[in-house]
């Protein structure tokens, strides 16, 4: 990863901002936070902080995933949102294009995950050491050897959606870690965080912010 990091230089897309939070549309190929080393310093949080100097991290998206990401603008908001993610008050919906035509319309993957140490950062299903992980999925359409699905993770494990779709035989297209052969031969990982539902740190009102998938 370190050798081929060439993040997109798209301008920052701000979806919503107020006195407590800012939500942006992260491009695929950009790290959420800095990696180890100067060559991995360009990331979404530093770009956000260039506009909103007080921005604080709440959660991450994988480098190759695009879509809605929230940052706190005060320590209070960071604590408030952090607890919401921890207690699974937030609702995240992703859109993905996956390999193969899924016959069923909906389903749930309930498989425990943990890091695959010899091959990290890859994760794998591990019934003995894995942490519980659940993903609900719904097919939007299935044709031409692929399916477009909505993925609703109930837990937030690393690479959860990618490993869960692989486990049921439908890897996400363009996935550099888990797709093989023709399924890998796409310009990007076909995974996008479409919407995030949360309670506003100032008053607790429900809010939902969305960004259309670019694929």
Question: Your description of this structure?
Answer:
This protein is mostly beta strands and 215 residues long. The protein is 13% helix and 33% strand. The chain has helices spanning 44-51, 75-86, 160-167, and strands spanning 14-17, 21-26, 56-57, 66-72, 91-99, 106-110, 113-115, 123-125, 134-143, 146-153, 191-199, 206-210. A hairpin with a 2-residue loop joins strand 9 and strand 10. The longest helix has 12 residues, at 75-86. The two termini are 23 Å apart.
Question: What is this structure, in a nutshell?
Answer:
The chain has helices at residues 44-51, 75-86, 160-167, and strands at 14-17, 21-26, 56-57, 66-72, 91-99, 106-110, 113-115, 123-125, 134-143, 146-153, 191-199, 206-210.
User: Which structural class best describes the helix and strand composition?
Assistant: mainly beta
Shape: globular
Count of extended strands? 12
The biggest beta sheet is recorded as: 10 strands, mixed
Determine the N-to-C terminus distance. 23 Å
Instruction: Tell me the radius of gyration.
Output: 17 Å
β-strand percent reads: 25-35%
Structure annotation, total helices: 3
Fill in the keyword field for this structure:
215 residues; mainly beta; 10-stranded mixed sheet; two-stranded antiparallel sheet; 3 helices
Task: Note the topology.
Elements: E1 14-17, E2 21-26, H1 44-51, E3 56-57, E4 66-72, H2 75-86, E5 91-99, E6 106-110, E7 113-115, E8 123-125, E9 134-143, E10 146-153, H3 160-167, E11 191-199, E12 206-210
Parallel strand pairs: 4-11
Antiparallel strand pairs: 1-2, 2-4, 3-4, 5-10, 5-11, 6-9, 7-8, 9-10, 11-12
């Amino acid at each position: 990863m370190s050798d081929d990091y060439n993040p997109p230089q798209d301008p920052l897309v701000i979806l919503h901002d107020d006195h407590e939070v800012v939500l942006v549309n992260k491009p695929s190929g950009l790290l959420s936070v800095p990696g180890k080393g100067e060559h991995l310093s360009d990331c979404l949080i530093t770009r956000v902080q260039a506009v909103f100097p007080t921005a604080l991290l709440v959660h991450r998206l994988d480098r190759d995933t695009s879509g809605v990401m929230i940052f706190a603008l005060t320590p209070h908001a960071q604590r408030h949102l952090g607890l919401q993610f921890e207690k699974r008050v937030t609702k995240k919906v992703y859109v993905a294009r996956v390999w193969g035509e899924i016959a069923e319309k909906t389903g749930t993957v309930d498989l425990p995950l943990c890091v695959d140490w010899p091959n990290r950062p890859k994760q794998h299903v591990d019934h003995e050491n894995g942490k519980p992980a659940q993903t609900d999925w719904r097919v939007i359409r299935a044709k031409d050897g692929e399916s477009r699905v909505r993925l609703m993770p109930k837990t937030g494990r690393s690479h959860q959606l990618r490993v869960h779709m692989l486990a049921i035989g439908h890897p996400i297209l363009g996935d550099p870690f888990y797709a093989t052969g023709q399924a890998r031969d796409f310009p990007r990982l076909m995974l996008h965080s479409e919407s995030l539902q949360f309670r506003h740190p100032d008053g607790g009102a429900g809010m939902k912010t969305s960004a259309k998938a670019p694929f």
